[in-house]
Amino acid sequence: GLEIKCPYHYGSFNKHKKGIEGNKFDGEFSGGLLSYNYAQIQHQMLVTSYDRWIYWSFFKGADALSIIEKDEDFQAELLKRCFMFRELVLNKIPPREEDFLPYEKSF
Questions:
Q1: For residue 4, what are the CA distances in angstroms to 62, 73, 83, 84, 97?
Q2: How many CA atoms lie within 13 A of 12 on its CB side?
Q3: Which of 23, 61, 79, 82 is the most exposed place for a label (fewest CB within 10 A)?
């Protein structure tokens, strides 16, 4: 699979590039990506059954590329939360914030 990011400004691209280069900033990055991009790509791999994904970010002629591998532990937790969320929707129950915090705060 392929995920292409084209940030609007250099600051965002620079964050993508730093993540790919392996820098870590207080949970902001996971697996070499911004944590929300990592979660998105792991979800895409989960639903497509792919074992790896290409992540490409570019900005005005500069680019950053990474191959992301399947993270079975992360995907198991993600799937568990997807089913939790499904049950809430089916039963018309609003989710509790603490059950669905952003990735870097809850996994």
A1: 13, 24, 28, 29, 30
A2: 10
A3: 61
